[in-house]
Amino acid sequence: MPLTNDDAHRRHHSSQFQIPTNAGDEDDFLPSTQTLLSSRSQKPLATSDLSLHISTPKRPRRSTQTATGKENVPSITYRDVGFKRQKNGAVALDDGEVFGASDIDLGCSLDLIQPSIVGCSYETHDVNSGEEIVDGDDKFSGAIDECKGSKGKGGYLVNSIESRLVNSRVDYDIGVSGSGDDKVSGDDFESDTELDLLLNLHSELDEEDGINREGFGIEATDFMLDEEGLIQCPLCGVDISDLSDEQRLVHTNDCIDKVDAEAQNVALTPDKKQTSGPRQSDNSKFSTVLKWLHDLGLSKYEGLFVREEVDWDTLQWLTDEDLNNMGITALGPRRKITHALSELRKESSLVETSTNSRAYSSTGQQSNNGSDGREGSTNGTNKTPPNKLITDYFPGFATNKKNPCSSSSVQKDVGKKIPDSLNKGKTAKRNVRNRKLGNVPVWSCIPGTPFRVDAFRHLRGDCFHWFLTHFHMDHYQGLTKSFCHGMIYCSTITAKLVNMKIGIPWERLQVLPLDQKINIAGVDVTCFDANHCPGSIIILFEPPNGKAVLHTGDFRFCEQMGGLSVFQTCRIHTLVLDTTYCDPQYDFPKQETVIQFVIDAIQAEAFNPKTLFLIGCYTIGKERLFLEVARVLRKKVYVTAAKLRILKCLGFSAEDMKWFTVNERESHIHVVPLWTLASFKRLKHVSTQYANRFSLIVAFSPTGWALSKGKKKSPGRRWQQGTIIRYEVPYSEHSSFSELKDFVKLVSPANIIPSVNNHGPDSARAMTSLLLSS
DNA sequence: GCGATCAGAT
DNA sequence: CACATCTGATCGC
Predict the structure, then answer these.
(1) A75 touches strand B (CB under 7 A)
(2) pLDDT for residue A742 is more than 50
(3) In the CATH scheme, what is the homologous superfamily, with its name and number, of domain A442-584+738-772?
(4) Is A481 near strand B, with its CB below 7 A from some atom of it?
(5) What is the 3-state secondary structure (H, E, C) of A177-204?
(6) Which bases of chain B are under 7 A from a protein CB atom?
């Protein structure tokens, strides 16, 4: 049942948004054709720019079958939003689940905001808008202030670009080139726009690539060169200089398989140990600890140490706080232990890399913790040699690019399919990421420290210090409220979200300040804003061994970051790098450029008052995009109450917050989850629901993948089906290829560990063109 | 019945 | 591809 005018009238209306009246009759309105756009746009430039060719989406739309054979039809349902229909027909948010995952599914909010459409009374809306959305968490206010304080220092929030957007000449670098072979409307472009750069990128890189191949022997760069220039197997260290490239791969792959098999054999137990009892299965690894305790005359704490699964490695890094947390509340015993521990550390610092063989490494092969093996290749060479290839920083990269299931055959044409005999789909991918070190991926271990980063999928008793770089599912996955493995370190914003959404008690959360060195377990730790999503951090670890490790988490390199003095003053030994877009094909524009594009596109279409604009976002992420749209256009954007609650955690100023409204009548720009925009099917559903109020939907999908492979040089895409237009805009919260390049150049690490190893076979080559010295 | 985990989806 | 997420099934408590 469509919303009637009467219904609309009875809802309270806001004057905030003035609908332009100069548009043609709504009946006139044709589903945005290129001509129409051009002729009506306030900015001819923008409209011509928008004239991307309309292509058929590649993915066939089909309903998917669940495992049970049930039709999995995406739909907007009450259940999706986690609210309840009340007796009177009104709908209320289900408070008990306000922050349940589904509750944040803003895309499903249409039922909520348009209850009459689905047969509810208007009280519903009142229920909604009158919903108590005040957090009531005063205890956080200090923390939030702290966040705000960081604004001026170059945090996520600092990149307010409003003034630049308003004043600067519009750079239509994106969404302007049509299919890629169209000529860009000449007058409107300067010759040296980013677009040109984009267009030239591929050829340039190809050339570069060629040079590399000839000059340096690109195929060999996947392997480690030792100091004498011999090529070593990244796994066993054997000299393989004399082998052909293929033979080298074969050799390496065999090694991987061996290591993997070993890791499988020994590592299966820890994960399964719930069933067999945590203690007995690997009691031996605690025996040294227990003996040590006994020698100190503290046998009575044996139980605690076993319960917390403190093995010898973990022991070395326990702090007084840890001991207290474990339940050793008496000061005397804690003193005794910490003193004994400091003695231990002194000893072990003499033998620098000497972490004892890891718990699950029964084979003698160093199977864990990132501090070993890998470092051997670059050990001692803090100075970066000139013309070092990027893959020189990826010891064992050959192992990563290889499909783990392709065993030991050399294959460049292996394609995407993984042999059925082994893993399939995502499982296989995970194995790619996690291979090499048994269970714990290399990138989550910080060499020289007892720390893990974003490794909650691999919780173990051998670690007490868990860092979380930001609050995205793929980084906190595995973290549940029953977490009992020590302390979690993260930013204020992340801590707040972790506490709220997962229910981790504050006692387990340690907030890390920004731009300020602190000491944790004998390691200096400094955090910087990662410019990824709110609360995201880059972490610098300076362990006693002098080999600084910089872990970027997910990050987008930006000017402010380049200005940080640490990167110049501190020698970074190991860089754990977000390599999501470490491929020349990903060279998207600056965020502000994309934001400007979105703003202009909205303006171009806004002559039609019956246009609904949708902007995609994540639970956390892409805020800057819709906030800037709101600020520049001076229009509020609609968010659901649940989303607003999240936004309130992110440290935005009161001034910024006023651009958000939970009253959808106040805005024709709605913020929705990205996946709502993923398919036209869903968009059509939205369109149907809004049939009375809107005749056109313009959706923006902000994603770095907008520039991916199949899409070639088209820098942003416009799709249209009937009265629905969807733009894929290259708004990325990860570093582009060239930004990665700049960052690596700036940091000049001796060693790089990629945190994303999901590149196909070809990208190895692409990576090699990442020359440091260029 | 609930939470944790995983497989399979967009 | 998969940025990050959702959904359903399964298992253990």
Answers:
(1) no
(2) yes
(3) Ribonuclease Z/Hydroxyacylglutathione hydrolase-like (3.60.15.10)
(4) yes
(5) CCCCCCCCCHHHCCCCCHHHHHHHHHHH
(6) 3-10
Backbone angles phi, psi at A441, to 5 degrees: -65, 150
pLDDT digits (tens, 9 = 90+) for A572-614: 999 999 999 888 888 889 999 999 999 999 999 999 999 999 9
Confidence of residue A320 (pLDDT cuts 50, 70, 90): low
The answer to whether the C-beta of A339 is closer than 7 A to strand B is: no
Angstrom distance, A97 CA to C13 C1': 23
Taking 90 as the threshold, does the pLDDT of residue A145 lie above it? Answer: no
Tens-place pLDDT, residues A479-508:
998 999 999 999 999 999 999 889 999 999
CATH number for domain A591-731, candidates 3.40.50.150, 3.40.50.300, 3.40.30.10, 3.40.50.12650: 3.40.50.12650
Q: Which residue is nearest to nucleotide B6 (CA to C1')?
A: A427
Ordered DSSP codes for A419-436: PTTS--HHHHHHHHHHTT
Domain locations along chain A:
442-584+738-772, 591-731
Taking all residues of chain A, what is their mean pLDDT, rounded to a whole number? 61
Nearest nucleotide by C1' from A759 CA? Answer: C1
Confidence (pLDDT) at A474: 93
Q: What residue type is assigned to position A97 of the chain?
A: E
Residue nearest to nucleotide B3 (CA to C1'): A480
Which positions in strand C are less than 7 Å from the protein's CB atoms?
1-9, 12-13
Overall average pLDDT of the A309-318 stretch = 70
Q: Provide the CA A645 to C1' C13 distance, Å, integer.
A: 33
Residues 6+ apart with CB under 8 A from A495: A143, A488, A506, A509, A510, A511
